Amino acid sequence: MKKLILFLFILASFCTKAAEVIELKMPKSEIIVIKLMFRNGSMSDPKGKGGLTQLTANTIAEGGTKDLSSSDIKDLIYPWAASYGVSVDKEVSIFTFSVHRDHLEKFYPVIRNLMLTPRFDAEDFNRVKSNQQNYIDEVIRTSSDEEYSKKLLEDLLFRGSSYQHPVAGTSEGVKACSLEDVKLQYQQYFTRDNLDIGIAGSYTPEFLARLKADMNQLPELKATLPPPAIARVPNGIEVEIVSKDNALGSAIFTGFPLTLTRANDDFVPLMIANSWLGEHRKSYSRLYQKIREQRSMNYGDYSYIEWYNNGGGHMLPRPGYPRQSNYFAIWLRPVQTAKGLKGQYPELSGIETGHAHFALRMAIREMDLLIRNGMSKEDFELTRDFLRSYMKLYAQTPEQQLGYLMDSKFYKRANWLETADQLLATCTLEKVNAAMKKYWQTQNMFITIVTDKSEAVPLARSLRENSVSPMSYSDVLKGVLSPEILKEDDEVKAFPLNVRSVNIVESNDTFRK
What pTM value is reported for the model? Predict the structure, then answer.
């Protein structure tokens, strides 16, 4: 009977365009993980309704099924220690389900019915929409100036494209979304034609066949999937300063388009260069040492060669955010404003601007020196060996391992973590230095700075005029700094930046339409 059921499921899958499956067989694992990756993401949001894809995904995940309310589901699965949720990014939406294998058969109807017969209850929709509206109207501006600045950088990079607005949308976009819009988005984009199924654990062939056959009952794709956005190329250094009431510092992101992703072998040599320059949350990196360690300017300074989701909350990069359109970025955690410095140190009462201009100069100068001079053989070998060990921490759980396998398929790789290790093992110093010269530069960048209203105008003036920006130390700190650091400060304060434009915008005017 089992063989007959399996045959019928397989036969049914051939009658329609079947979703592709990424398998991670783990016979000894007691946990079953299922991931459903839809190739839609926020770039599929209709014009004027930015945020609709996330609203749709969350209404499905946080709502119920045709037969069970969301509260019923929570009560039902609680004894099984089962969990599920959804993440949405620019190009993909991923539903993740996890359960102990002993409870898979009881949990599976919930998975199937959430995806095939979502409840789309008005009360659930209104609750989800209210939370999303509050996030885009209030939370995005008040919870973290660093994440705020990061989203503003993407706004600059992708202005005029489907990548421009935050995944959560815009204020007017979310307001414009109705429950009928959510139902239509589900029918058009959460379909079997653009679905990849991932499964990890000790599942049976019969279960996998049933899962495939059920997911093939999803709607057919009824809309054209949009192409990935193309990032704008900045003309010189273009700066956008966001003026905000009572900002505690200047939160800075700077970046420019990159023409490669994990699909390209050159990505790995660039990983080595980037790790030496600014590996996320690593104190050995150059930016961290120069800006935080030696000068005590902030809590950290990092660089990235692809999107790093929630860098403020994650020490390690998370899978599930693959993108075809890529960019380089530097994150300078908030540095002090003139207002803050003058309030703490009477000896600095005469300064007009805080540390932002100096910090930018130092970060860009360090990158410029690295591109021009290249890495040393010793730094190359130490950094490459570190990365080969460090990347083994990326996927410590079945859910993370499956996530990276699904990302790998997105980039047309068999197993990205294994491939990256092989490429690291054979990488040379010459490849790293050549990759930097090919893909990196410091003359054309976008810069976003979220800062206090008192800082916005003088900082804009200093950047426009390329004014000398001496580092402002308290007398106590300056007294213990080495002559070498003070000499370097004199070189940094006048380092020329190719600034072509500086605009000031009000915080309340961002992410509105």
Answer: 0.94
- What are the CA-CA distances from residue 47 to residues 42, 173, 174, 501 (Å)? 11, 8, 11, 28
* Domain range 2-215, CATH class: alpha beta
d(CA 373, CA 363): 15
52: which residues sit within 8 A by CB, 6+ positions away?
Answer: 45, 46, 169, 173, 177, 181, 182, 185
Tokens of 336: 């002090």
What digits encode the pLDDT tens for the residues 427-482?
999 999 999 999 999 999 999 999 999 999 999 999 999 999 999 999 999 999 99
Return the CATH number of 237-509, one of 3.30.830.10, 1.10.10.10, 3.30.420.270, 2.60.40.2250: 3.30.830.10
Residue 270 structure tokens = 């660039």
* HSE, side-chain direction, 13 A CA sphere, residue 227: 3
**Domain boundaries in the chain?**
2-215, 237-509
- For 477, which DSSP code? H
Say yes or no: do domains 2-215 and 237-509 share a fold: yes
